[in-house]
Design brief:
Blueprint lengths: L13 H17 L4 H33 L6 H29 L4 H4 L3
Helix pairs in contact: 2-3
InterPro entries: ATPase_gene1, ATPase_put
Keywords: Membrane, Transmembrane, Transmembrane helix
Protein name: AtpZ/AtpI family protein
Length: 113
Amino acid sequence: MKPDPKRTPATPTLAEQVGAKASRKLKARRRDTPVVWFGLGMMGLIGWSVVVPTLLGAALGLWLDKHHPGGHSWTLALLVAGLTLGCLNAWHWVSKEDEAMHDEPDEKEQGDD
């Protein structure tokens, strides 16, 4: 019997693929928090982490423009600075959650008793 040229040793068999999908499904069912609600909560957290610094920057810029008028707009400059700070903050939260998701130990690593 000839070896299949399409299948390399790194390609998982059908049984391995089914087993991997089944273990992922069981792992998802064992989670304490529903994934949909977690995702919506994370979207809210990311939204507020961008909106709050942006609005604070705009408010501070308006105050500076009113009390210390000059040749340039503090409002626009601080609005962009707040937006940048908010986006960096959101990126931090997303990368932290992504790292936490990928650091969860699998059942293979824990060992079955």
